[in-house]
Amino acid sequence: MLGATLSGKSMYLRNLLTGLAAQPVALVGIDCKRGVELAPFAPRLSALATEPDQAAELLPPLVKEMEDRYDLIKARQGIAPGTPEELITSDIWGLPEDERPAPIVLFIDEVAELFLVATRKEEERRDEMVTQLIRLAQLGRAAGLYLEVCGQRFGAELGKGATMLRAQLTGRVCHRVNDEASAKMALGDIAPEAVLAACAIAPELPGLAVAGDTSGGWSRIRTPYLSLADAAATCRATAHLAPDVPALALFRPYVPPMPVEASGPLATTHPATE
Ligand SMILES: Nc1ncnc2c1ncn2[C@@H]1O[C@H](COP(=O)(O)OP(=O)(O)OP(=O)(O)O)[C@@H](O)[C@H]1O
User: Fold this and answer.
1) How far apart are CA 142 and CA 93, in angstroms?
2) Predicted complex ipTM
3) What keywords were assigned to this record (predicted)?
4) What's the CATH superfamily of 9-242?
């Protein structure tokens, strides 16, 4: 999902996240802008990384979880071949409900922050993370792992692997952008007319976007208005719906308990002598 500053990216993300919050889906966040965007949703997040170092620790367990799920599908395929109990599936959705792992959606806010490097060591870490993200984007779907990658721009200038990662993302949403090149990054490989439609979005209409996918189909969409306070409240109210994903247990964000409204003293004191 792309868009210039104030084009409506946060509003879109908020809607998507709260929409999923009510469903049995594990939500995972990487927000290297210190978590300012995703931290308000922390109560409903199964994992949150707010620094590149944390993101680098979070991605390997996600890749491992994906591989374990492939093993699970493979093991289940081998049961009772040729009998009515045989299970023919190549993704988690064909597994019996009680054996099916919960889908995981990974939100990455401001992807450029993940690509930024200052030192040689950071460059190595970045390359590893990008490779892991490409694997998740390429193979994750069958294992019920999905990526929502957000940014102002998402092109080759971000660094090695950026366009390869982008090519794996099959659904695209482009809000108002500052130049045609940015719209092309989002939609150019999907439909040229969609690029023109994205360039025609007026600044007075934040939340208006062009959504398309690799089938070539696209349409104009408008995100409904949803305040941050309401979105955060939904995440608190649905916190108990976060599925248990043991691989992510270490990454669950700390959420301070809500202050309870003062209910007055339990006992009133009276002077011993009147
Ligand atoms: N669908 C909408 N309806 C009404 N107002 C909207 C809508 N979407 C966004 N806005 C308003 O437009 C402004 C910018 O939206 P938002 O913060 O989502 O943009 P952004 O692209 O995330 O900006 P930034 O990159 O600066 O974080 C906000 O004041 C928001 O309330």
Assistant:
1) 8
2) 0.96
3) ATP-binding, Nucleotide-binding
4) P-loop containing nucleotide triphosphate hydrolases (3.40.50.300)
